[in-house]
Amino acid sequence: MISYATLGSNNRQAAKTFYDAVLQPLGMKASYADDDFVGYGPDAPDAKTQLWICKPYNGLDASAGNGSMLALEASTRTQVDAAHAAALAQGGRSEGAPGLREAYGPNFYAAYFRDLDGNKLALVCRAEA
Fold first, then answer.
1. Closest CA to 61 of 119, 8, 15, 115
2. In this structure, CATH architecture of domain 5-56+65-125
3. At what angle do helices 12-23 and 77-89 cross, to 10 degrees?
4. pLDDT, mean of residues 97-114
5. Which residues, at least 6 apart from 22, have a Cβ–Cβ distance to it below 8 Å?
6. Burial, 108: exposed, middle or buried (Cβ in 10 Å; 0-12, 13-18, 19+)?
7. Which positions fall inside the VOC domain (predicted)?
8. Is the pLDDT of residue 1 over 80?
9. Which range, 1-5, 41-45, 74-78, has the best average confidence (pLDDT)?
10. How many CB atoms lie within 10 A of CB 126?
């Protein structure tokens, strides 16, 4: 249903360093980068770019949406743990440590963080332990 997502950043170079580290445990890499945009997709031949990071098109400063959150799917709980740890190591802020959120389902394992621009993201694994 969703083709791709875009997050605004006020410092595309810092955002690339941040997301390179955070998305690597999820098997994603920068598939495109220039001075204005960086795009991430699965580390596979001919994979589609699924996440774009860029300065807002209107030229105004990027800002985090109140109530907005992007959830990234992980195949394993270990990937959730590693990506959350990478986010914090790169200067992100935790919004919820990795763990089961049984209110959302018996195997809903998630962690939450904010990136360098304040965007909130979730890392989610629904696989059994």
1. 8
2. Roll (3.10)
3. 150
4. 97
5. 83, 86, 87, 90, 92, 115
6. middle
7. 1-126
8. no
9. 74-78
10. 14
pLDDT per position as a tens digit, 7-56 = 999 999 999 999 999 999 999 999 999 989 999 999 998 899 999 999 99
DSSP string, 15-71: HHHHHHHHHGGGTEEEEEE-SSEEEEEESSTTPPP-EEEE--TTSSPP---TT--EE
User: Does residue 124 have a pLDDT over 90?
Assistant: yes
Return all residues near 23 (Cβ < 8 A) that are at least 6 apart. Answer: 29, 40, 51, 72, 83
Distance CA(120)–CA(76), nearest Å, equals 21
Question: In degrees rounded to 5, what are phi and psi of residue 110?
Answer: -145, 160
Give the dihedral sign, CA 4/25/7/124.
Answer: positive
The residue extents of the domains of the chain are 5-56+65-125
What is the amino acid identity at position 58?
N
